[in-house]
Each structure stands twice: as structure tokens, then as C-alpha cells.
Design brief:
Length: 135
């Protein structure tokens, strides 16, 4: 009779352990899953569906406003420069951030059509790439 109790305890412990691991995996993937889109793709989806996303594009030179750690600018699609999304970013602004720079912003689209970015990353300029020289 004692062996049946031990088996039941092991089965219950395994079920609890498997359930906890499954929940942690699901929760981790759900929080970290982010769409990676171009500006044109994001414009087609619309603000209702873009609560969390990463956008890739170029800093548009039309209006870049940097003040008190906040950057307000337009993000243009790399291929279709007529497609732009206004972006508001609060935080440390990288040195490579300038007009025409390729950047990635991560955040969410607000109802008014502005993208509120939590993270702003710039692509390294080509001057840092190693040149292939024939000797």
C-alpha cells in the first residue's frame, strides 16, 4: 500500500513541474514576441494591431527635433521614401542618429498614429566595416 502512495506523489510532482515549465515557456515567448516590420508594412497594418513592434527605416530629414533626451522625427521606409511614420523616443540618443541614418525602433503605435519608441538602435556606419584589399 505504501508503494501506491509514493507513485501518486511522484506523478503529482511531475504534473506540477511540467505545468510550471510549460507556463514559463508560454509566458516568456508571449512577452518577447515582437513583429519586425518595415515602415510600409506597418502603415498597411494600422495602429490598432501594432501594440508592440520593431520598425526598420531611415531617419527622415523633414523634421528631427532633439530636446531634453527626447527625439521626435519621421521614420521613412528605405525603399518607399513617401511612406513615413512619426516617432517619439525618450532616452539616450546614439551618436550615429542623424538624418538619413538607418535605425530600428521598438515600441508601440498609439491611436493618433505616432509610434512611441522605447528602444532606438542605429546601424553602424560603413566606416567601421573592414575593407577587402588585395595585397
Amino acid at each position: 500500500m505504501r508503494k501506491k502512495n509514493n507513485v501518486a506523489i511522484y506523478v503529482a510532482a511531475f504534473v506540477l513541474f511540467a505545468g510550471a515549465v510549460g507556463y514559463l515557456c508560454y509566458d516568456g515567448f508571449a512577452k518577447d514576441s515582437v513583429y519586425f516590420l518595415t515602415v510600409a508594412e506597418a502603415g498597411e497594418i494600422g495602429p490598432d494591431s501594432l501594440k508592440q513592434a520593431r520598425l526598420f527605416g531611415l531617419v527622415s530629414g523633414a523634421d528631427v527635433n532633439r530636446r531634453d533626451g527626447t527625439a521626435v522625427f519621421d521614420l521613412a521606409d528605405k525603399d518607399r521614401k513617401d511612406r513615413v511614420i512619426p516617432v517619439v523616443y525618450k532616452g539616450a540618443i546614439p551618436d550615429a542618429f542623424k538624418e538619413g541614418a538607418e535605425i530600428i525602433v521598438e515600441g508601440g503605435m498609439k491611436e493618433d498614429g505616432k509610434f512611441l519608441a522605447k528602444i532606438l538602435m542605429t546601424k553602424c556606419p560603413s566606416k567601421y566595416k573592414k575593407e577587402n584589399r588585395a595585397i
